[in-house]
Amino acid sequence: MFGFLGLRFTHPDFGASTLVGKADNSIYAVLPTDEYKVGMSAVSEVSTNSAGQMLGIISAVKGDAFVISGDDQSYTVRKSELHGRVVAVLPFIGLVANLFNNG
Questions:
Q1: How far is CA 65 from the centre of its chain?
Q2: DSSP one-letter string for 4-61
Q3: pTM of the entire structure?
Q4: Mean pLDDT of 40-66
Q5: Which pLDDT band holds residue 11 (cuts at 50, 70, 90)?
Q6: Which residues of 60-96 are buried (b: 16+ CB within 10 A; e: fewer)?
Q7: I want to staple 52 with a disulfide (CB 3.0 to 4.6 A). Which of 7, 13, 31, 95 is the partner?
């Protein structure tokens, strides 16, 4: 449905909380981009953590390296590890996805 826009849906494993709860409580619509800026919400793979995908806020940019911050942790990631910027939140659908992943 949204493929022509490049829109993707993802379910992060951890990261920044939103108004509707923890990061893994929701599904996020992500738009891949080549330009990331400080303050932008993004989803990234975190290679230093076995947990996988993280929802975070980009807090620093230096060349190809980005610092992405969640509630209580920050990680340095490469641009290739960023999935894109968050453009929409589908609240509580992640709870259903968690039942299938943990069940």
A1: 16
A2: GGT-EEE--SEE--BTTBSGGGSEEEEE--S---TT-EEEEE-TTSTT-EEEEEEEEE
A3: 0.80
A4: 88
A5: confident
A6: eeeeeebbbbbeeeebebeeebbbbbbeebeeeebee
A7: 13
